[in-house]
Amino acid sequence: MDFFVSYHTDTGLRKHTNQDTIAIKMLDTPKGRAVLAAVCDGMGGLSAGELASKEVIQAFCHWFDTSFASIAAEGSFEPDHIIGEWNRLVKEENGRLAGYGLQRGASLGTTLSAILIYQEHYLIVHVGDSRIYEMTLSGLCQITEDQSLVAREVAEGRLTPEEALRDPRRSILLQCVGASASVEPAFYQGTVVPETSFLICSDGLCHELGADELYEQAGPLACKDPAVMRQKSVYLTELVKKRKEQDNISLILLKAYE
Q: In DSSP terms, which residues pair with 20 in a beta bridge?
């Protein structure tokens, strides 16, 4: 299995800095190509959010280049083992960022949504309200669940999905890496079939787009090659800006094929 990949990130209409950080890493292994794709949406005053998102992205890239590279070389791939490593890594980063903020009298944090695809298997680690979508020839599925106040209100029947889109509390997270006293990442796993596309994005992309629009522009039939995927990435970004989205906007498009 191989992959087409595209990405795009934009500061957006209101903010002066882009506090999102993204990463795409690939590795050729004895059992095929592996890919890691991650999006972190930072938060905090001035450059603090940018620092938080960059720190967590760098930690996962280092894990991929060292720990995962050893796992792949040894042929010792065990999803539960990787989940355990990711859980420790997220909690270490939460403590490191919290300590940095305490020393400087600042609060900083970041969301994290990352996917590893290897041997027709995907693993996801998720904190906050960035998202990962899976799109097959059958349709679109949002794999991750938003860890936000309004998402909890919708789940408990106190808000409708439509009300949640305009609720002033939309940006309040239940947890993030760095600004939470403790963090419990969510993990997801499944199998990957060829002609499946994945969209990994910060919440700035999601607010102004419906599921049908996402599937039309980012589904497997639309993702014909990296050049087309790049065009789609820019188009979706400019579309949400036209609809007055104020946040930073970042996305990674990833398509599996044989």
A: 41
Quickly tell me which residue has 């700035």 as its tokens.
204
Domains and CATH numbers, the chain: 2-141+174-257 (3.60.40.10)
Burial class (CB in 10 A: 0-12, 13-18, 19+), 61: middle
Secondary structure (3-state) at 22:
strand
User: For residue 198, is pLDDT > 70?
Assistant: yes
Query: In the structure, what pLDDT confidence band is assigned to residue 165 with cuts at 50, 70 and 90?
Result: confident
- Distance (Å, rounded) from C-alpha 150 to C-alpha 137? 30
Strand pairing category for 131-136 and 139-142: antiparallel
CA 202 to chain centre: 6
Nearest partner of 100 among 42, 154, 156, 39, judged by Cα: 42
Place of tokens 């789940």: 155
Q: How far apart are CA 6 and CA 237, in angstroms?
A: 13
- pTM comes to 0.96
Each residue of 111-157: pLDDT tens digit? 999 999 999 999 999 999 999 999 999 999 999 999 999 999 999 99
Number of alpha carbons in the 13 Å side-chain half-sphere of residue 6? 22
Give 47's pLDDT tier (boundaries 50, 70, 90): low
Measured between alpha carbons, how far is 61 from 127 in angstroms, rounded to an integer? 17
